[in-house]
Design goal:
single chain; about 425 residues; mainly alpha; two-stranded antiparallel sheet; 5 strands; globular
Length: about 425
């Protein structure tokens, strides 16, 4: 009960997002002249993958119609609700455009609830930083609103769960709990490997003597799960994880599309371009290491170090959107989820960042396909968001009675 009271803001915000979000999926389509519910169709393939895990059909984890391209943890997190769906005798058949599947009333709230770990993690970090309660309330509401994009709209709880685990991992790292941080990071990677972009920054800031053990522990969950899937069906696993197809005719092509490898059915391979993002993330790690060099030998980190590291992590997470040949609207969400935390140093920054991220979240849903009218403005919006969220110290005494933050621009800037 005490923990629930401490996390009252994220609990209320996530519950509100679930009720409002699920309700709108049912009542909004008739308003715009549609018959069926507004469903996140990406979710159904992952539910089928979770069903195959539940029934031990591991050879089919990466075969159609799952469409799974993340590590197996992305399906594992949905196994509990699939067990309930199976017990209720409901079908996981992919719904058509006019469908109103009852299974959505189970899968939707569960998916949104587990995705709420990102909002709870943000509040835990804010509490550690001694952020005032009113700011934490705004942070929780902003986090829940932004979460709609990746969950209710697109049906990718694995992204939210992975980023939430990443944030808890970095909080443990700041508190000197290196071992637990490594395992949390590993479970995050096993759920959605996009968080690997943050690993170079974490390694650059921590004590170098702990880096090898940290990497070993962080790699274990993903290697074990991926190894099991590869043993069951090597060809399908290798093809899905390394190529990671995306469709420029359905989603948003970027200026990098001509460099992508064409695949069957009009798709392109997005996996190889992510190597470029990892290389650039290593460059960001060098700058983060210089900015936070004093923390390497400290048993715990001060607030400045944690905030600066999180800001650099937000930059690395943005690299996915910068270098993808094809982008989807929810790709920007991890940046927003971390940026609103680093913006809590002052009220103007928190409010400006919340408005910017909210605007970009809803503006990104437009169906434009031209890189110049969609991708370029989105990347520019990400850059503006990161500028607004930079953890600068307040220019005046905070009238809310909270302690002031002290943060300086990284030396690399």
């Amino acid at each position: 009960m005490q923990r629930l009271v401490r996390r009252a803001f994220p609990a209320i915000s996530v519950a509100g997002m679930i009720v409002i979000g699920i309700t709108l999926t049912m009542v909004w389509p008739p308003v715009v002249g549609k018959i069926g519910w507004a469903l996140p169709h990406d979710l159904w393939g992952t539910l089928v993958a979770a069903s195959r895990v539940l029934h031990g059909q591991l050879s089919g984890l990466y075969t159609q119609p799952t469409g799974l391209i993340t590590l197996p943890g992305g399906a594992l997190i949905l196994v509990p609700i699939v067990a309930v769906i199976d017990a209720a005798g409901l079908s996981l058949h992919v719904p058509g455009p006019d469908a109103r599947p009852v299974v959505w009333l189970l899968a939707g709230p569960y998916m949104a609830a587990i995705s709420g770990i990102a909002v709870f993690a943000a509040d835990a970090i804010a509490e550690h930083l001694a952020v005032p309660r009113f700011k934490r309330a705004v942070l929780a509401v902003a986090g829940a609103v932004l979460l709609w994009n990746v969950t209710i709209r697109w049906g990718h709880p694995e992204d939210a769960v992975a980023v939430g685990l990443l944030m808890y991992s970095m909080l443990d790292l700041a508190r000197g709990r290196t071992g637990r941080s490594a395992w949390l990071f590993g479970f995050a990677v096993a759920t959605q490997p996009l968080v690997l972009l943050a690993l170079p920054v974490a390694l650059a800031v921590m004590n170098p003597r702990r880096a090898a053990g940290y990497v070993a522990a962080a790699a274990t969950p993903g290697v074990v799960l991926l190894g099991i899937a590869a043993i069951a069906n090597w060809h399908a696993t290798y093809a899905a994880v390394t190529r990671q197809p995306n469709w420029p005719t359905i989603n948003h092509p970027t200026l990098w599309l001509p460099l992508a490898t064409p695949m069957h059915g009009g798709a392109v391979a997005a996996g190889p371009s992510r190597v470029v993002a990892i290389v650039v993330a290593c460059g960001c790690a060098v700058a983060a290491g210089i900015a936070c060099r004093s923390a390497r030998d400290a048993p715990t980190w001060d607030s400045d170090t944690l905030l600066r590291m999180l800001w650099w992590i937000a930059i690395t997470l943005a690299l996915r959107s910068v270098f993808e040949p094809v982008m989807v609207a929810y790709y920007a969400w991890p940046v927003f989820a971390v940026a609103v935390i680093t913006a809590t140093t002052t009220w103007p920054r928190l409010l400006a960042t919340s408005v910017a991220t909210g605007t970009l979240t809803f503006a990104s849903q437009v169906p434009w396909r031209s890189p110049w009218t969609w991708w370029v403005p989105m990347v520019a919006g990400l850059a503006i968001t990161l500028m607004l969220a930079f953890p600068r110290p307040p220019t005046a005494i905070d009238t809310s009675g909270s302690r002031s933050y002290r943060s300086e621009a990284p030396a690399a800037l």
